[in-house]
Structure formats: structure tokens, C-alpha cells
Amino acid sequence: MLDALTVAVSVAALALAAWCGFAFTRNQSTKDWHFIGMAVVTFLALVQLVVGIVQLTRGEKAEEGTTIFLAYLLGALCAVPAAGLMSLTERSKWGSATVAAGAVVLAVLEVRLYDIWTVG
To answer: How far apart are CA 40 and CA 31, in angstroms?
Structure first.
């Protein structure tokens, strides 16, 4: 895994979480700009998924196993879009809180992905 990409996804996810958390504190629902931010974070997670699959096909191995690594990559890809879809159904400040929580989940998944790839 590329450490720089993992850090980039984590930082982008935490920035999105802070942005949506700020919207929550101001009693605002998710706006179009938030969805653009979600798209950027999701794109970074998609790039990470592709890079991870390419590295696995080149013969590199995740220290804790390929299956769990792929499961975490797919979970990381789905975290923010799932939160974004849920925020569409909840058009209140709680939609922003949902996206903020989904972005924090993505940041935590990134830490775990790093651990799965480089144990020891």
C-alpha cells in the first residue's frame, strides 16, 4: 500500500468530518458542497482500492491476509457514500452528523488498513 495515499484519504476524510460537523453545530443539513467533498473522498478511496488490487495482483501480500484486506478496502470505499445516501433521507442537521460519522469511520478504517498491510 502507498503510505502517502493512506494518509491522503485519512486527512481528506477527517477534513470532511470536521466540515460536516461544523454544519451540524450550525443546524444545517448537507448541502451540494458537502456532496462534492464526499465525491472527492470517495474518489480517493476508489483510487486506494485500485492501487491495493494492483499490488495484490503483482504478488505483494497483506500481512494479515488478502481476504480481510480486500474486505476493508471495500468497506472503506462504501463508508462515505453510504453516509451520504443516509443524509439524503434525513434533511436536517442530523444528515450532516451522519456524514461526519461516516467520514470518521473511514479514517479509522484507513488506520486498520495500514495495520493489515504492514504488521510487525
So the answer is: 15
